Amino acid sequence: IGNPGSSFAVEIARKIGLPEEVIADASEIVGSEYINADKYLQDIVRDKRYWETKRQNIRKREKQMEETIAKYEEELQELEKSRKEILRKAKEDAERLIQESNARIENNHPYHQGSTSRQRTYTIGTSGTD
Which of 123, 82, 80 is nearest to 102 (CA)? Predict the structure, then answer.
Protein backbone atom coordinates (compact mmCIF):
# COMPACT_ATOMS: atom_id res chain seq x y z
CA ILE A 1 0.00 0.00 0.00
CA GLY A 2 2.27 2.91 1.04
CA ASN A 3 2.99 5.57 3.64
CA PRO A 4 0.13 7.46 5.21
CA GLY A 5 -0.33 10.93 3.78
CA SER A 6 -1.35 12.65 0.57
CA SER A 7 0.35 10.20 -1.75
CA PHE A 8 -1.37 7.34 0.05
CA ALA A 9 -4.78 9.03 -0.24
CA VAL A 10 -4.24 9.66 -3.95
CA GLU A 11 -3.20 6.05 -4.44
CA ILE A 12 -6.35 4.77 -2.71
CA ALA A 13 -8.54 7.15 -4.73
CA ARG A 14 -7.07 5.80 -7.95
CA LYS A 15 -7.44 2.17 -6.84
CA ILE A 16 -11.13 2.59 -6.04
CA GLY A 17 -11.65 4.15 -9.44
CA LEU A 18 -12.30 7.84 -8.73
CA PRO A 19 -11.91 9.97 -11.83
CA GLU A 20 -8.62 11.85 -12.27
CA GLU A 21 -10.52 15.17 -12.29
CA VAL A 22 -11.85 14.48 -8.78
CA ILE A 23 -8.41 13.45 -7.58
CA ALA A 24 -6.82 16.60 -9.08
CA ASP A 25 -9.51 18.84 -7.51
CA ALA A 26 -8.99 17.18 -4.12
CA SER A 27 -5.24 17.72 -4.37
CA GLU A 28 -5.79 21.45 -5.05
CA ILE A 29 -8.20 21.78 -2.13
CA VAL A 30 -5.79 20.08 0.24
CA GLY A 31 -3.01 22.35 -1.00
CA SER A 32 0.68 22.51 -0.34
CA GLU A 33 0.35 22.46 3.46
CA TYR A 34 -0.99 18.93 3.37
CA ILE A 35 1.68 17.87 0.91
CA ASN A 36 4.37 19.47 3.10
CA ALA A 37 2.97 17.72 6.17
CA ASP A 38 3.20 14.44 4.29
CA LYS A 39 6.82 15.20 3.40
CA TYR A 40 7.59 15.99 7.04
CA LEU A 41 5.94 12.77 8.12
CA GLN A 42 8.07 10.81 5.66
CA ASP A 43 11.17 12.61 6.95
CA ILE A 44 10.23 11.73 10.52
CA VAL A 45 9.71 8.07 9.62
CA ARG A 46 13.09 8.00 7.83
CA ASP A 47 14.82 9.69 10.77
CA LYS A 48 13.17 7.31 13.21
CA ARG A 49 14.54 4.31 11.30
CA TYR A 50 17.99 5.92 11.20
CA TRP A 51 18.07 6.54 14.96
CA GLU A 52 16.68 3.10 15.75
CA THR A 53 19.52 1.59 13.73
CA LYS A 54 22.04 3.81 15.55
CA ARG A 55 20.60 2.79 18.93
CA GLN A 56 20.81 -0.90 18.00
CA ASN A 57 24.44 -0.44 16.93
CA ILE A 58 25.24 1.33 20.20
CA ARG A 59 23.61 -1.46 22.23
CA LYS A 60 25.55 -4.05 20.24
CA ARG A 61 28.84 -2.23 20.89
CA GLU A 62 28.02 -1.81 24.58
CA LYS A 63 27.39 -5.55 24.84
CA GLN A 64 30.69 -6.28 23.06
CA MET A 65 32.53 -3.91 25.41
CA GLU A 66 30.93 -5.52 28.48
CA GLU A 67 31.95 -8.96 27.21
CA THR A 68 35.49 -7.73 26.54
CA ILE A 69 35.72 -6.16 30.01
CA ALA A 70 34.48 -9.37 31.62
CA LYS A 71 37.04 -11.39 29.64
CA TYR A 72 39.90 -9.10 30.68
CA GLU A 73 38.79 -9.11 34.32
CA GLU A 74 38.80 -12.91 34.27
CA GLU A 75 42.25 -12.96 32.65
CA LEU A 76 43.49 -10.48 35.25
CA GLN A 77 42.27 -12.73 38.06
CA GLU A 78 44.02 -15.71 36.47
CA LEU A 79 47.24 -13.70 36.12
CA GLU A 80 47.01 -12.64 39.76
CA LYS A 81 46.59 -16.28 40.82
CA SER A 82 49.58 -17.26 38.69
CA ARG A 83 51.66 -14.43 40.13
CA LYS A 84 50.88 -15.50 43.70
CA GLU A 85 51.68 -19.12 42.89
CA ILE A 86 54.99 -18.15 41.27
CA LEU A 87 55.92 -16.01 44.29
CA ARG A 88 54.96 -18.82 46.68
CA LYS A 89 57.10 -21.34 44.79
CA ALA A 90 60.01 -18.88 44.57
CA LYS A 91 59.84 -18.30 48.32
CA GLU A 92 59.77 -22.05 48.99
CA ASP A 93 62.72 -22.57 46.65
CA ALA A 94 64.66 -19.74 48.29
CA GLU A 95 63.99 -21.13 51.78
CA ARG A 96 65.02 -24.63 50.66
CA LEU A 97 68.24 -23.26 49.13
CA ILE A 98 69.04 -21.35 52.31
CA GLN A 99 68.48 -24.48 54.42
CA GLU A 100 70.63 -26.58 52.09
CA SER A 101 73.36 -23.93 52.11
CA ASN A 102 73.29 -23.72 55.91
CA ALA A 103 73.52 -27.50 56.14
CA ARG A 104 76.52 -27.56 53.79
CA ILE A 105 78.22 -24.77 55.71
CA GLU A 106 77.69 -26.59 59.00
CA ASN A 107 78.92 -29.88 57.58
CA ASN A 108 81.97 -28.43 55.82
CA HIS A 109 83.14 -25.82 58.32
CA PRO A 110 86.44 -26.70 60.11
CA TYR A 111 84.96 -26.10 63.56
CA HIS A 112 82.38 -28.79 62.95
CA GLN A 113 84.63 -31.42 61.50
CA GLY A 114 85.42 -33.76 64.37
CA SER A 115 84.21 -31.34 67.02
CA THR A 116 81.13 -32.34 68.96
CA SER A 117 81.59 -29.95 71.86
CA ARG A 118 81.07 -26.79 69.81
CA GLN A 119 78.03 -26.88 67.58
CA ARG A 120 77.35 -23.75 65.57
CA THR A 121 74.51 -22.81 63.27
CA TYR A 122 75.32 -20.40 60.53
CA THR A 123 72.83 -18.23 58.76
CA ILE A 124 73.32 -16.08 55.76
CA GLY A 125 74.79 -12.76 56.74
CA THR A 126 76.20 -13.82 60.16
CA SER A 127 79.81 -14.39 61.12
CA GLY A 128 81.06 -17.82 62.23
CA THR A 129 83.70 -16.52 64.68
CA ASP A 130 83.33 -16.05 68.43
Answer: 123
Which conformational region is residue 2 in: left (phi greater than 0), alpha (psi within -120 to 50 degrees), or beta? left
Task: Locate all alpha helices (DSSP H) within the chain, ordered by sequence.
Answer: 6-15, 20-108
Angle between helices 6-15 and 20-108 (to 10 degrees): 130
What's the mean pLDDT when you consider all of the chain?
82
Which residues constitute the domain of residue 76? 6-83
Domain membership of residue 103 (yes or no) is no
Distance of CA 15 to the CA centre of its chain: 55
pTM over 0.70: no
In a domain, 97, yes or no: no
Instruction: Kindly state whether residue 113 falls inside one of the protein's structural domains.
Output: no
- Overall average pLDDT of the 87-106 stretch: 95
Alpha-carbon distance of 113 to 56, in angstroms, equals 83
Task: Domain count for the chain, please give it.
Answer: 1
In whole angstroms, how far apart are CA 89 and each of 93, 94, 97, 117, 130? 6, 8, 12, 38, 36
* Domain annotation covers residue 42: yes
What pLDDT is attached to residue 33? 66
